[in-house]
Design goal:
Leucine-rich Repeat Variant; mainly alpha; single chain
Length: 124
């Protein structure tokens, strides 16, 4: 699969991410998590977090968000941890335990998510 960052004729902006969120385009948002611009990646992670809170994202975003936990930008990693908690996919537990060791607010968010009433039973 080609990442959006290797498509030289295709530019993505935060407003494009907003449109994807409005359309509940989980697949597009997951692809945007791998885009070259950190602001686009941040917006995509945030959109998936919000959609997860509303129950609009189940396991479809899991793989992209797990990859985002290793993003070079700490904000993307923090929001990805929060989004995984909102989605409540039980597969994320091990990944979040690993993320606790991350610096900045990422480890704190991972610990917070794991310490909350875990929603994994909702999406099995």
């Amino acid at each position: 699969m080609w990442g959006l960052d290797v498509l030289p004729l295709f530019e993505l902006s935060k407003s494009d991410v907003d449109k994807m969120e409005t359309k509940c385009d989980v697949k597009g948002l997951v692809k945007a998590l791998a885009y070259k611009d950190k602001d686009v990646r941040r917006a995509a992670a945030q959109a998936l977090r919000i959609m997860g809170r509303k129950g609009l994202v189940v396991g479809n975003a899991y793989d992209g968000l797990v990859v985002a936990l290793k993003d070079p930008d700490w904000v993307v990693r923090r929001v990805a941890a929060s989004a995984l908690g909102e989605i409540g996919d039980a597969r994320a537990i091990d990944e979040l335990v690993i993320a606790i060791k991350d610096q900045y607010a990422v480890g704190w968010m991972a610990a917070k998510v794991l310490g909350e009433d875990w929603r994994c039973t909702r999406n099995r």
